[in-house]
Structures
1.
Amino acid sequence: MRKTILLLAACLLMILTAIPGLGLADQQPAKLTLYEGPKTMQTSGDAAVSVNGYDLFVYDVMVNHEHIWNANTQPTTTPMAYFDFEGTVRVRIEMPGLSQAVESAVVQPYAWGIVPEVKDGAVSFTITEPGQYTVVFNGSVNKALHLFANPLETDVPDPNDPDVFWIGPGEWAMDAIALQDNQTLYLSGGAVLHSIISVANASNVKICGRGLIDGSDYPAWNQAGSYARVPIDLNRAKNVTVEGIGIVNSNCWNLNSFSSKNVTINNVKIISGRQNGDGFTFQSCTDHLVTNCFARTWDDSLVIKNYAGSTKGITFKNVQVWTDLAQSMEIGYETDKGMTLDPEISGVLFEDITVLYNFHKPVISIHNSDDAFVHDIAYRNIVVENAFMQGDNGNNKELIEMTLQNSSWSTVRDEFGSIDDVTIDGLTVLNTLDGKVPRSRLSGIGEENRITNVTLRNVRILGEPVTTLKEMKLSTDDYCDGIVIE
Amino acid sequence: MKRFFCLILALLLAVPCMALCENAEEIETIVTVVTAPPQTKPERPPCFPDPADDYIPLPETENLAQGKPVLSGAHTDVYVIKNVNDGKTDTYWESKGFPAETLFDLQGTYAVSTVAVCLNPSSIWEPRIQEIAVMVSLDGENFTQAAAPEKYEFDAASGNRVRIDFEQTQAAFVKVIFTLNSAARTGGAQAAEICIFE
């Protein structure tokens, strides 16, 4: 009998220790790297965030809740914090900046499956994976917290390397940084850099770290006395890596690449709320890979255009998008701004994209507004958590829009191109503004300028599978062929 | 003996239960805190020494051009002529083609001896060559050449500025004439500031 009792107790102990959720299976302590904010700045008064009991520095960064273009728009702010970790950490959030006590909270992307605990106005939840987490309070996106939980840093550049510019924690300012061949700029966590970084006609360049590039020291680019200061601007660059940093408060576009090749962008976080604050925007580029990134923008979030030649081989994978203005995944409108011979945009893949919110224009859009041949475009596993497109005065609020027509951004006005071979495989829409399936639209412009071979499959909207174009509310015109949904 | 086994059993069960409670409140953590240096204002990153020490020096006398009436021909886009003597090097004038003339009314007669042409000192302005000449006049109609056309190199390492010294000359009007700009992307002359000194 005694042996049986002991045996049962031992078994129970083994079972309990094997359950991961109890935290007993993994005896390894969490590893956590925290970054003090610059002494010249104060942590946000809107949010207090701690991880495993350790306080984070919280930044107030510009965002914009005005969901229609306004040349003189005034952004507001939302809290943002970041840290690095490995293991299991418990996040605790208090929101003194809200007018009401926190009664509910949601962690996005919903795919994390996190159900936060809300108790006495504080929100708590556990995370085990590095990634980007957005917390929305009391059912309102006002003061939503963006929490960037980075993996622990590896391969930190050697500060003594003569080709390494090593910027430590603190607040720094200089007009501009021009990186040359084989140079690395390291921006440490805890650093806030007021500057712009240019990589022009240079190769083998790296920009990395955990710090922030902050454009708040300049007015919006279109205001009197100001001008566009793109935080990271790649111009005819080759073999460039951008990794780990954040870009906030830009006064124009955020991460721009023009006629560049072999660019890898990983774990870069963009939050912008000012005029023309496009996120990742590439013109006439080849072989760009964007992974594990975040873009909350007040203009197109992920953008591909042709400014001087063709585009080929662009992949966005595992990217979270929050589009306060314009489109989430935009190809166009400019598809031949440089008026080159036989322009194309091809080999483009958007995969594992989560659109946290789109408040304005189409989520998926190809606006072939010049004369390019746009083809071999794929969208795989696109999850739109909140498709809240308001459009402009009732227009441009489609879920999917592909068009061949002139626009105010057209350069080539007397010729048109075509769109061919587009696949949307895996499109899930969880919420819409009116609880209905949003409309989609495909429109060619002539017998020689058609939209052809567009395949949609594995589409679910508002919990229901969508298997016909009618259910999809997808309209086509006489210049569309081979438009199917499976 | 029975009590002993009960005690053992209780201990065995208590260990995971206590650990479970601790997990909810406190997770064992190895923390690294990256601290910020003492600062009272944003500073220039130490890895980028201030290049101003290597800038071409300008006379310390009054810049006679600043804020004075200035004319030019057509300009490119938004880069209007008033930018050329507004005292700021982050705004600039760009002509539409060549030759490009800028005409300054000094609103008085001065013994001028130096003209400086400045671009934005930022290193993102790639090196370029501009060909520049200077002419002076007392009445705004009859001009004499103070500095013949010459090619000048603009480089951020020296402040993206050039200094044109010439024999001291009485002048009420100064004309700065551009005939070339090697920068690939421009179709005209460029100047963030044109300065005139005695």
Note: Residues 2-18 of chain A form the longest helix (17 residues).
2.
Amino acid sequence: MAQSVSEMIREKRKSSKRQKLEKLVPGLLFAAASVSVLTTVGILLTLVVETFMFFTEVPFSQFFFSTEMQPLNRSEPTFSILPLLSATLLSTVIAMLVAIPIGLTTAVYLSEYATDRARRVLKPIVEVLAGIPTIVYGFFAFTFVTPVLQNIIPILDRTNILSPGIVMGIMIIPMVASLSEDALSSVPLSMREGAMAFGATKFETTVRVVIPAAISGIIASFVLGISRAIGETMIVTIASGSNKNLTFDITQSMQTMTAYIVEVTSGDAGAGTTAYYSLYAVAITLFVFTLAMNMLAKYISKRYREEY
Amino acid sequence: MSINSLQERPSREEATVTQEEAREAVFRTEGLNLWYGNTQALHNIELDQRANEVTAIIGPSGCGKSTYIKTLNRMVQMNPIVKVTGKVYYRDQNIFDRKFPVEELRTRVGMVFQKPNPFPKTIFENVAYGPKIHGIRNKKLLAEIVEESLKGAAIWEEVKDRLQENAFGLSGGQQQRLCIARCLAIEPDVILMDEPTSALDPKSTLKVEELVQQLKSKYSIMIVTHNMQQAARISDRTAFFLNGEVIEFDETDKIFSNPSDKRTEDYITGRFG
Amino acid sequence: MEQNYINQEEVSRRIPGRLAVNKVVRGLFLTSTLFGLVVLAILLYDVITDSWGWIDWQFLTSVMSFNEEAAGIIGAISGTLWLMLIVGPVTMIIGVATAIYLEEYVKEGRVRTFFETNVANLAGVPSIVFGLLGLTVFVRLMNMGSVVLAGGLTMSLLVLPIVIVSAQESLRAVPSYLREASFGMGATRWQTIRSVVLPAALPSILTGMILAMSRAIGETAPLIALGIPALLIPLPSGLFDSFTVLPVQVYYWTIDAALNQNYASLAAATIVVLLVLMFILNSAAILIRNKFQQRF
């Protein structure tokens, strides 16, 4: 060997191949990172353009203020989002009536009452609920929960908004529970000790001290749950049917925004028909609602973040 | 010059040993100022590192000694809020010169960190890492470099039978010597050591100190230390930093026996810091 | 003047009541925690009893048929595998590259905030909307039709935010002193990433990837929106073939369950296969995480 290592290194350094690679890499990575931005742009463009097409054919007022939704009526189709909105609203309310109390109490139990061992066993099991595909919940709502409920409420239709609402709530429990638990367990121990030192019971400490301290995180978890419920598709598609009448009777079949999209895309509304364009008008409404909820959740948890 | 001469590289010492002052400066720092955002951490630093000498940098926590040493291989500038003015010459090249690639600087100037930081790879791969990234692929040559570097860091005997084991299996002191070996593998000119023994037990500390003494014949070494005895034991010259300024920079013997600044005296006699 | 604001007797008298409330509440909370467990048990019991006797070799290896007794899900299984074949590499490459860009190149500042906000918002978009995107762009605009590639790309975009976020976390978990060691030897940024950061983060990145895949194979809505048919179709053999997947198969059998109880059984049997597949993926993820857990 005639050269020292340092000389060899100096020689190798001169090769420009590596320099080029070093310059090329950030560009390639940037291109990859742009994919997610392009996805957002794609979603917005698709929704806006096609929605625009829809409103050249259907008046704004009909879509937002009439109550008749008959998209596939050959002679005189009418489009109204209100029946879909009311179905979405009702299913979301039912879901949150299940998810909020059970999710929050689960969070409190896991964070305040459970021993370490119990938490280690229970928490993953609760989280398994979040990993089950929604189609499975749909099947469960349709073939199990609805028949069971029909025994209790005989007037319940075979497709209705109550049963999928409840099942959707079950699906959302882990989300509310785990986000609320994060908020609860980030409350410092010293605050709990402060309350317990003058004789408060665990329950009193939790209700008077811990929950108020963690309230922003807890509410954010509710809002995210609502967003999830609004966007949930398969459970309602399967179990709540396709009735497009404006109603608030939870024992009846109703169609949510998401279920409407599934029905039209899997049906035979050809591209270019008004029914096809209506998809996008409904989807953009759905998109705006979920986006607003997600941003609200972020705002709440940021704006009211407690400084401990 | 052969790879085997890594240990017995003819040093400039022989030529200049009689004339200390004639030793050439490897690093020359002129009017260096450094800010973290709006906080100035270094004030007008003037300091020379001479070839084949050990310079110790001492001073209380937060005095800027680590910041200074990390400026010399420009690691400090990985923090985007850092701003620098002034000049640092490495062998007459301004290290802040845009035409002087930072990677080249760092192949000439190795660094040993406060906490031993081997890669989660085998012992062999740890030492071979530097030569490999700099384009040396020949297996036989790599094996030679690894052996020589480990010998240079006085850890060869301890690890020669377990080169393919994960470096995390070594003790803290061994890990730090491995990191020194890793540094030697690219044949640097200068080695910067940022409190290399602060995470080690006394026995390992002594080993590293002995090693520094041996390495001096081939490398120029700058070492940041909290430990004044250590500075006194191993360094030729010592710089005392306080609040981002060089208060005093002189022969180590002079600093510890007869400091010219009151603040230096206060520090080395333990009155503060 | 001596006056006690707190009547000690009163306090003592109230204590048993307060303790009782605490006890009752504790029981209620535990019940509520167990509620999830019970539902999970009922759900699995329901699915398994419905599918009892239907899962056999014939069911797993036969193609779809209108005769329930002869129907099988080999088509849906192979479609699901095809989907994984696309979603895996596509999200791995784009997701990890995005994460590297954000964690190792951009670091702080507006660019990063912009990208991260975008990813966070995408993660909250309902999956059906991704289906519409796929329908509009891949199926119609690019004229692919409802083929494997269109489904795979749509699904990739859907899980991409999950992969990006988990890969970012994996990269962030690599301690900075490893990067410093590498930079300190004159390695360039890309060399450091390729030979130090990525190998150290790989097990954790893989774990996140597998979990994302598990999410992808359970998704139904976007694929239905793409117009995946419930017809008898030949097994897909390429990117441009029609296909169906397990959850879509479940969907069509479930909505027909009202007509014929056998369809409910077929749907349940398919669910069991889907859940087993997901269970395998999740176990693999946990295994990788435990085996390669780095101690830095």
Note: The mean pLDDT of chain B is 88.
